Amino acid sequence: MSELHAPAREVLDQIRALPASSGRPLVICDVDEVVFHMIAHLETFLAERDMGFLRYAYQLTGNIARKDSDTPIGQDEVRRLLLEFFAEVSDRQTPVDGAAAALERLSADCEVVFLTNLPGSANKPARERLLASHGMPYPVVTNSGPKGGAAAALSAGRGRPVVFIDDSPQNLKSVHLCLPETRLVHFIADARFRAAVDPLPMAGLLTGDWQETTRHILSILERS
Ligand SMILES: [Mg+2]
User: Fold this and answer.
1) HSE toward the beta carbon, residue 190, CA cutoff 13 A
2) For every residue of 50-108, which 3-state class applies, written as one string?
3) Residue 37 C-alpha to ligand 1 middle, in angstroms?
4) What's this model's pTM, rounded to 2 decimal places?
5) In angstroms, what is the span from residue 33 Cα to ligand 1's centroid?
6) How far is the CA of 109 from the centre of ligand 1 (A)?
7) CA of 207 to the centre of ligand 1 (A)
8) Mean pLDDT score, 48-63
């Protein structure tokens, strides 16, 4: 596995601390823009600072500008804003419609684990509390960078098939590379960003609908 995809020690430590495998199929699910809204909150956060996205594109650096300008703000300012954003909203992000009911249904047949890229390890307890308060009390592993290595480590010794749900093309490609047999669901809650992405050939479904996602995953389970 290339260095780029290798999980950090903090990630492996969290994986080791997970409850023992039940041997049931594994659903690895992202949080931002999948079970909690993120883009909508980020737009509000940026608008409060007289900023916005230049395009509905899966890119932050080079895609955020002040309202009166087409020139994107620099990488350092994006990084600083994102840290501030997560610190401010990570205890009040709103859930995506149908996510809790869908995961509850899937958890009857599968093991569900959240794998989320979250800046600042201090934000993890807030995220766990918020997920639980919205009816999603599943284990959380926080990661940074591409998720392939973490997904491979997480699924080792656990049940099959493995389903991976994420909004980020980079993460889906990384998991496809590191764990090719994984069934991929490309889930983007925001309809504008969903309409703007190129469908990935390796993903079985591109959707923003949790009912459709549940039907798709149950049909994978039936056929495996
Ligand atoms: Mg996400």
Assistant:
1) 20
2) CEEECCCCCCCCCCEEECCCCCECCHHHHHHHHHHHHHHHCCCCCECCCHHHHHHHHHC
3) 9
4) 0.95
5) 5
6) 24
7) 13
8) 92
